[in-house]
Specification:
Four copies of one chain form a homotetramer. Chain A has helices at 15-42, 49-56, 74-87, 89-109, 112-123, 234-268, 280-308, 314-338, 350-362, 367-379; strands at residues 129-132, 148-151, 155-166, 173-180, 183-190, 196-197, 212-223, 227-231, 270-271, 274-275. In chain A, helix 3 runs antiparallel to helix 4. The longest helix of chain A is centred in the middle third of the chain and has 35 residues, at 234-268. In chain A, the strands form two sheets. In chain A, strands 1, 2, 3, 4, 5, 6, 7 and 8 form an eight-stranded mixed β-sheet that branches. Chain A has a two-stranded antiparallel ribbon with strand order 9-10. Chain A has 385 residues and is an alpha+beta fold. In chain A, strand 2 (148-151) and strand 3 (155-166) form a beta hairpin. Chains in contact: A-B, A-C, A-D, B-C, B-D, C-D. At the A-B interface, strand 9, helix 8, helix 9 and helix 10 of A face strand 9, helix 8, helix 9 and helix 10 of B.
Chain lengths: 385, 385, 385, 385
């Protein structure tokens, strides 16, 4: 790691980790950072990056190589997400969806046919996927979903609507969760299936370099073989655990980006005859950021150990997602303030990250929902309702 | 006041105040709110509003009627800024610049000729003004300014550059502060004067519905009669006190906008079978916002009394600007969170206000500078350097 | 007011207010401050102050003079509580109980006989009273109280226990709330009544200069004429509104005490060759405190206007109690930190106030309960349960 | 570890660590907790614990066995301090002083004679030590110390005064830092040396179960052989790094104590018909505490690795001390609030820990000083003065 690393976590990595991350870090510096601000302002996804990310092995990083994945460990996955989100939360979101929300459920709950058909193409980005769980009226409470599947002679008839679906409009394949006889099941819905449309959502102030869509199903017929072999909410929730793990790491990357910009600015911006980094009020802000980032890094490293050892629980992941995203958002706001008037300009990454992290704070379990997940873990009492 | 008013401040207003504010409130609802989000996203100033604001008497609201102003009291001025910023900080900024940073110094430090020439046209918005104090390397420390005036036979030769100038590109007249023999003086620089240009700044993430510019002076010759009759930094600082007063009120308007949106959303958004406003974690956020807004309203009302009685000090104004803008920014962030995923959309005013308030926190004395102004007031010791 | 008054609230007072407060302020400086720290450390109430407070007219300050009260307005009451708690929260608690929780209900709900018998003696401190509402298992939810009254031929038989009763052991008369046929009623229980005991609670870390007691009723017989003329929880709640009003003011007094100590310390304590008040990190703390105290003062002044005009609601009072006590506690903690190592010593008032305010935060509606009262006010939805 | 361990740090310990900590944990439960509250209220040190702590091997835990120490690693040292401060900060302070501030400098900078004479007796608690660095006017800036040593024929003549010296009055041996020819040196001053007195400081609100003293030197003659072999401020600072390391761990112990009390209380205290742990506002507080404690545990574990590997810097230790003590204090305050009115009683450990941690926040580098140490680390600019 070439970036912020107060506790020398680098010394705990293998050479393989270090090589991969260094090359990904270069990719972020060379390919993402020079173009991302413009994409954010314009509200466009930098589609030229997709294949390059695939070549780096980002998609399906923990999926076995036989299916086209990189077969890496969770530590590698985490480090990769951190680097990508140092670039932009939209790019990391793209990777999270493709890997954790599309490839993971196919790998975990798919038939051999489904795996062979989709995983290699998703790994190479020949195909792009999306994940349809959230509905307009069911965000924090997916159990209430209205999207419905009915068994037909040759498959299933899908009706309903999903919202806030990253990559929906771009996707060749959508993992869609719907109730079949009242029980949640997952379906593979291919682009072009009659009755399926995925219009893009507009007017976003956040993740503007990402495509966000609705998914609409009107008597959309899905073939029999396109159902996943899992029933109940534990299916989608297991995917969310995977994705949240990546988010917990990614958020730290965003925090590093804004922190390093703030440090650099503090050392070079002169007011009252000295660098503003010489003022106690600025040092306090920098110390706050370094402290919070470093703790988040320790969380992530420990979480990776638990994941790789098979000992991580969804509560561990909730803890990390909740803490790290709030932390990153706080850092982005503080870094913005340190940059003074310049902090509102696209020359500096701070407002872009701050805006993006508003989405990251909310998606895949809002901050408050993760608070209540921890509260239940502590007290044994559910307090969601 | 039709909006948030926990402590019934309305009952402390005159009929005149109430009538004016109610009509301005309608104006905000009808003229500003339906168009502002689009202007923000596009990065354009809604120029069709300018004349309408003039007709409402917004520009030069405290300037005597003989010069085209409304001759109102500071309480009226404050209430007006609150309503306007309930619309958008950019619109309030426009009004602040025109009234407090352009008309005020001409009224206060201008010759009778200058007053007669400019004040009526500024009040009617026939002319637009801007205020050039901040320089690229001198934000919090304007005493260090490099812009320079040299006495010539027939006037002054101006050289230098200003930055972060609201309305610069639009302005017919710029109040420019420059050092003459080492002492700060104010000059009226008219649009089209050779050697003067005012290119717009691009790439802003904040106040996107406002025009922000650089002012560039290259051997720009100013006629003798265009100098203001004030010397030293107290000239521009007295203007800032006026403007900050309006900002302190305006910020509360922004806070009211986001709070009311959050309350409405909390009552209508259903999760887990009930309005999210029924959850303790949401009520806590709403209670926080109402508390902080109400206190800011009490500050503003008391400050208006002190202003109208001639007893307000710059420290009183610093107190209010510092407290109220930070408060409004906090409320915008919290309101954003309450809106969940919907909070990132342009359907709701929350991210726009949050983004705008980043500028408002920084301009006219950053939060930290006002902290140190209060610190000096308390301890008698200056700690800026 | 001789103390912290950033917004010159003194100028809004009458001469009568000012004279009274100045003399009370002297009393605090001369009679309370020199002895209070020792009483706190020893855990004793400074009983020698009681009669002096009565002579100053503190007890029953808003009760008409015909009953021995001072017949003053609520502004005067508030100002007095502020001064007293600048001394110590225990002294102000004593006054709150005597005035708002004992004299007020007798005045409001008592028979003419009850009023004539008790009010003059309570005003002169010939008698001391206490207020028994809270029970061991019913703090935030007094509606659940178990204390029970049964009608007998000649009166009522009381059974049950109360806890956290300020002045219980000292009291000549206890206002006790108990359920009669399932409905809450108030009873006057005189010291020495068979079956009534009031042992003191020990082991307190807070309000150590106050007597806190249990009240125990075992087949305690109360004469017919000792019932108050009010039924339902609105009786005790109306008393709490009175007391909370005084607490809202009192807390500001505690905050002023710790703030002024911190300012003085900051100006005189030298480190690194200058007063610590010259450091930005200290100025930030002082600015925070001054800001929060000044806002609380504005709340209190407005609240007094609403009370005196008959326009205050219980929600207004909850707002002020909630905000001001938390504020005072925060100030006490920050002031403690500014005092460095010296801040743990009894030479400075900071830890004593901080410890006391823990009780004040909790009693008469915890901070969270008042949050939910405001939340209900905002959303129309009760979220206590 | 039998206590709070969200990230299963126990699984990273050796059997030796676990056995030791479990037995120490029992000691805390059996020997410290039943008596400590009474000692706190009375302001007395529980001297009966000293020998038992020695028997457990607490004093000089990292000092080689040849000198009577336990020869354990820093991880063991940290775990031990965590357990002890779960009991009380005063007990941990006693151990910190004896081990890190007395035995460490003798071991590190002492002659073989000094080591042989003192270390075994200090390890067995036959002798007690103290550390004299801070002076009344030099807390955060020890370089300014006034205590002075002058070379005499047979040794050194010491004059000056120290303050805030834990165990000063109890100590058989004081490590005293004084300027000799303007350079800081360390001296061993034995109890009973003429001209040396160590009166106890009274009136403390914090660490009341600890003895805190002044050290006074009036022409106090020290033999030649009692000087340590180190010159300059780096001598005492190296000791502070050792002690701060233990504090960083200890603070987590205090936080665990208050957190576990709050969890237990939340599950058993019923209001509105359910355990208060079922309320969202309580779950939020518990989640906050668990989050902050768990991060502090990860910091400490990583710091122990760096210490044991010889890779820890003073900045790493500052980071941990600053973060963890503030965290513990915040937890104690929040836990106090969760306990409601009961939280002010000595039945629960919360106010005692909160009061103690005020000292811990301040001593061995205040929170703000550690902020500036980190600020300097980040920016390369010192901003202390």
């Amino acid at each position: 790691m070439k970036n912020t690393d107060f506790f020398d976590i680098k010394s705990l990595l293998t050479e393989e980790h270090k090589l991969f991350i260094d090359s990904l870090s270069d990719f972020v510096d060379i390919e993402i950072l020079p173009v991302i601000e413009e994409h954010f302002l314009e509200g466009t996804y930098p589609s030229e990056l997709t294949l390059k990310l695939a070549e780096l092995g980002i998609f399906g990083i923990t999926i076995p190589q036989e299916y086209g994945g990189a077969g890496a460990d969770y530590l590698m996955y985490g480090l990769a997400m951190q680097e990508l989100e140092r670039g932009d939360s939209a790019i990391r979101s793209f990777a999270s969806v493709q890997s954790s929300l599309v490839m993971y459920p196919i790998y975990k709950y798919g038939s051999e046919n489904q795996k062979n058909k989709w995983l290699p193409k998703l790994a190479s980005a020949e195909s792009i996927g999306c994940f349809g769980l959230t509905e307009p009226d069911f965000g924090s409470n997916p159990a209430g979903m209205l999207t419905n599947a009915v068994k037909t002679r040759s498959g299933y008839l899908l009706n309903g609507a999903k919202m806030w679906i990253t990559n929906g409009t771009l996707a060749d394949i959508a993992i869609v969760w719907a109730k079949l006889d009242g029980i949640v099941h997952g379906f593979l819905v291919e682009k072009g299936t009659p009755g399926f449309s995925a219009p893009e959502m507009k007017g976003k102030h956040s993740l503007r370099a990402s495509v966000t869509s609705e998914l609409i199903f009107q008597d959309c017929e899905i073939p029999e073989e396109n159902i996943l072999n899992i029933s109940g909410l534990k299916g989608p929730l297991s995917c969310l655990t995977q994705a949240r793990y990546g988010i917990a790491w990614g958020a730290v990357g965003a925090a590093i980006a804004v922190y390093e910009s703030a440090v650099e600015y503090s050392k070079t911006r002169i007011q009252f005859g000295k660098p503003i980094g010489a003022f106690q009020l600025v040092q306090e802000k920098l110390a706050y950021m370094l402290t919070e980032i470093s703790k988040a890094q320790l969380i992530n490293f420990r979480l990776a150990q638990l994941m790789d050892g098979g000992n991580a629980t969804p509560q561990h992941v909730s803890f990390a997602k909740r803490n790290n995203v709030r932390m990153a958002l706080d850092c982005a706001r503080i870094a913005r303030e340190i940059h003074g008037a310049n902090g509102i300009l696209s020359e500096y990454p701070v407002m872009r990250h701050a805006a993006n992290l508003e989405s990251v704070l909310t998606y895949e379990g809002t901050h408050d929902i993760h608070t209540l997940i921890l509260g239940q873990h502590i007290t044994g009492i559910a307090a969601y309702e």
